[in-house]
Amino acid sequence: MSARPLILVVGRRAAAVSGLRFSATVAAEAVCEAVFANGGEPLVLHGADRGRLPELPLRLSRFAGVVLPGGSDLDPAHYGQDRHPRTSPDHAEQDALDLAAARAVLDLGLPALAICRGLQAVNTVCGGTLVQHLPPGRVEHLDAAHEVTPVPGSRLEAVVGPRTFTVSSYHHQAVDRVGRGLRVTARSADGCVEALEHTTADLLAVQWHPEDLAATSPQDAALFADLIDRARDRKEVAA
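The structure assignment produced for this chain is given below.
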């Protein structure tokens, strides 16, 4: 049996975690389980202060693939906007880490899957902007399930198939202006951008949370299996 490719999951800062006296760096168990169930070995990236971010490309280059996971709102200053009353930015150091990780993934050409906030971080570093708060509409996006449809001929369609399918959604922000080098590969019925792919880098990005239904949804499981396949190919080429 071949060794599992090492898949880096960018950690989230937590002020408190049960059983620990101090702050922690954590990752969603569902993300790690989805990586493991599809053949990868998940490892959590410890956050670093901004003075050590130049080391990040070297640190990431040791891994076969990367997950840029979900989280809370990016500070809109990163894409040149004032803060909407409903926007709740994360810790400034978390923003710095996530944006630096997204840049490194693109620069290094690492196989990557970006999820929710991860997609938004990728769009931001590519010069795109976000809708800071989605108004109520015919599709619920916050803590809801809704359908998405892959764009014909896209990499996403090749991974999940051509049919419309149901996803687990938990976000109140979305892509507005699409960043450089990115193309839209899925939308929901209200036109909201639900997936992006990079035209040259080895990255797929989805606005929903595929880890939520990966154990029962063939399409969501396929996203993680595809990441592991791409990571394994990179590992074999590098060997």
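Interim note for the steering committee: The chain has seven helices and 13 strands. Residues 17 and 24 are 7 Å apart (CA to CA).
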